[in-house]
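Weekly structure sync, notes
Attendees: PL (lead), two postdocs, one rotation student
Agenda item 3: pending single-chain targets
PL asked that the sequence for the first pending target be pasted directly into the notes so everyone works from the same version. It is reproduced below exactly as submitted, 463 residues in total.
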Amino acid sequence: MSVKKLKSQIPSKLKIHYDDDSKPHRKPWSDGSINGSSSNYQVDVNKSGYLHSTSALADIQVSFHSLDWGQKKILDFFLIFPEMATMKKRFVIYWWISGCIPFQAEQAELHANVDQFGDLTYRGLTFWDSSIVNVDAAIIDGRHEIIFKRGTDLKVVYLGRWQNSVTHHIEVSDIKILNFLKNMKQLRVLSLRGISLITELPQFISQLTGLKTLDLKSCHNLEVVPDWIGLLENLTHLDISGCYLLDHMPKGLGALSNLEVLKGFIIRDSKDEKSCTINNLTKLSNLRKLSISISMKEFPTDLQLHHLQRLYHLEKLKISWSGCILRGKTDDSPKQAQLFSKQTTLTRSFIEQRDPKLPLLLKLPSSLQKLELEGFPEIDTPDWLRSNNLDNLKKLYIRGGLLCNLDKIVATTVQMLQLKYVSNLEIAWEDIMMLFPNLIYLEKVECPRLNNFPCDENGLWMN
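Predicted structure, written out during the meeting:
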């Protein structure tokens, strides 16, 4: 709403002309929705990235300087992105974590005023208020040195992909280009999301002990997460999901006592004692969001469930069985699913003997509010969804896999249910209402056996 109010104060049509160096990096901001005026305002940007003085700029400045400090900061932040850009809230949250964007305007009144829109844009990278953000650079190399030399007080370096599209390609020509970070002791957020050709993390990152967010999602060439990750003692957010060449997790993760969000934790069918396990994660008393990638169909064992239950503050849990196909390119008939389930059960009985020290009834953490199951490899509802322990569960998402029924699930508090690509699932709408009496939202995508659901053409049902 604040952005909408600010938008209404900007002239109706604003065309921005750039020189050849910066022309590809931003698009004109033209919004005819404010009024029907056909007049054009011209604003030029010189090589340093600053706006030339024009009558249009004068009009903008009058409105801009009438805002409080916090509103100026927020507007200034969004102006560095192209017209009609779409981003997820995670992107802005990272800036909030760094302290560059205030949560509330009144908290920022003690700081100096913002006097201009942005600061410097060069070859797709923008320097903005102790931050570097990759607006649209596809290749990061030595040509960006003018940006990297802006000082040693950076709080945010967001070289990775912020765009929603997973096809947006970014690469680093030489990992040594990151050496400019060595002396950034104030750094709070580092994102290398979606950047290719990064096979390992530079050792000096271990010295950035003030780092709170490290985003390595979809770094497809990353081969190992080093054990020195445990030296980043202030880390609260770590995303290593989508790094498919990783085969284990370092035990150093267990030393991140302030960690709140961990995405992409890998569990492999390995006896490697150097690998981090769920048991090691039980030391993370602040962990509230966890996503796990599994290659072994026997997960979770009784012991793993016991350790999961000890994550007392866990609110969101996602489990992805990567060995299963989400959409049916193989034989996923009920008969094949039953055979697969029987084999899995037999395998589990051989590899796991119940520990008499474990409680008889093993459950997921009672603190869970959201549970996602992706590629679940069995046909029946698992035992850990049949317990009465999920008193706080509000969201249940099931995507892909071999699940055939939900008739024994005990999650009556669920309000949002998502069923995607579960081709074998068969259940009557009346039974859904009995299982989830508090349901207010349901989404169904490509579930051919759920024909009797009263969803609209988009597969949505709302109470």
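Discussion points:
- The chain has three domains: 1-66, 84-287, 329-463.
- Residues 1-66 form one domain.
Action: rotation student to compare against the earlier draft before next sync.
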